[in-house]
Amino acid sequence: MTHDLVYVYAVLPRPLAAELHGIDGRRVRWVLQGELAAAVSDVPEADFEEEPLNRNVRDMGWLGPRAIAHQDVNARLFEASDAIVPLAFGSVFRDDQRVAQMLQEEQQPLAQQLARVKGAAEWVVALHALSTPDADQSEAVQTARAEVAAASPGRAHLLRQRLATLERDEVRRLQSDAATHVLQALRAIARDVYEEPLPADTVERPLLRVSVLMAREHDTRLLDEIEQLRSLWAEPTYRLLLTGPWPPYRFAGLKA
Amino acid sequence: MTTADDELSLLELTDRLLNRGVVLTGEAVISVAGVDLIYLGLNVVLTAVENLRRPHGDLAPRDHERV
């Protein structure tokens, strides 16, 4: 018979009455300690012991349904409670006693995290460049184009190389301006903003990717702001993506 | 059926859940070691997602790309 481990979804100020099912359809139950309650379910050791777990998370066929189950539980808890610290996928403990021990040892940071995200949701905003913005407005580019047009064929070749550099720099500047503007606009309305590190070598590298912590009562303010930003940084040059509301994974997650 | 939006949602989801690696280390807890799956394995993930079946409902919070 295989042994079970205890999987933790989230920490809340108090347990909820809702009947929930988590990974592999197992019932969600509560581990209580002091002023905190952890939502947990049992998971098989064969899948969730450290070595198989670290192998399994690289397999999307295995990870997908379990990640969805994790999120489903946290989404329900998030909707039903005004404060939640959702844990990252794969927070696994040997038994309930170890969970209680964690709640006790982390009591202060957990209480601070709960206070920080109380009444707030997390959103993800990403700005992508769909096509190259127009460099025509740049005086340097205009001047260089005029010089190319007026130059002799030999000299025009050299000038064209310089023009290409100018145009590339101008495009970078415009894209960087767009990203900065979006970031500042979000900072102006959000409770907190976290600029996500950008991936180095993917096909669709965004210009900007941020997590936004926003009071739930201001959801519509964010949606309005996004609409406005979309009209400023419009397609087909830019695309602004928004997902949410998420439980505050980024802002409330436990620190290593 | 898995659409492109679902793939994006699942990518976003795994990014939310896994991005920080994990959590606590030591005796009390087992942790996922430094998983940076979302962007490192983007192509692999996208391929794998096509074979995925959703149990029910939405993968993730509604995507507001087209409101």
List the helices and strands and how they pair.
The complex is a heterodimer of chains A (256) and B (67).
Chain A: E1 4-12, E2 29-33, E3 36-44, H1 45-48, H2 50-56, H3 60-80, E4 85-86, E5 92-93, H4 96-105, H5 107-117, E6 120-129, H6 139-150, H7 153-189, E7 192-195, E8 208-215, H8 219-232, E9 238-246, H9 249-252
Antiparallel strand pairs in A: 1-3, 1-4, 1-5, 2-3, 6-8, 6-9, 7-8
Helix pairs in contact in A: 6-7, 7-8
Chain B: H1 4-18, E1 29-30, H2 37-40, H3 42-49
Description:
Chain A starts with a strand and ends with a helix. Helix content of chain A is 47%, strand content 23%. Chain A has 9 helices and 9 strands. Chain A is of the alpha+beta class. With 67 residues, chain B is mainly α. Helices cover 40% and strands 3% of the residues of chain B. Chain B has helices at residues 4-18, 37-40, 42-49; one strand at 29-30. The interface between A and B is large, with 53 and 46 residues.
The helical percent of chain A reads 40-55%
**Helix and strand pattern of chain B:** HEHH
Strand content of chain A: 15-25%
β-strand number of chain B: 1
| Radius of gyration of CA atoms of chain B, rounded to a whole number | 14 Å
Q: Would you report the number of β strands of chain A?
A: 9
Largest interface: A-B, 53 and 46 residues
Major pleated sheet of chain B: none
Order of helices and strands of chain A: EEEHHHEEHHEHHEEHEH
Q: How much helicity do the residues of chain B have?
A: 40-55%
* Number of helical regions of chain B: 3
Shape of chain B: elongated
Query: Helix/strand-derived class of chain B?
Result: mainly alpha
The major β-sheet of chain A equals: 5 strands, antiparallel
* Ends distance of chain A: 33 Å
Instruction: Write down the overall mean pLDDT of chain B.
Output: 43
Number of helices, counting only DSSP H or I runs of 4 residues or more of chain A: 9
Query: Which regions of chain B contain 5 or more consecutive residues with pLDDT less than 50?
Result: 20-67
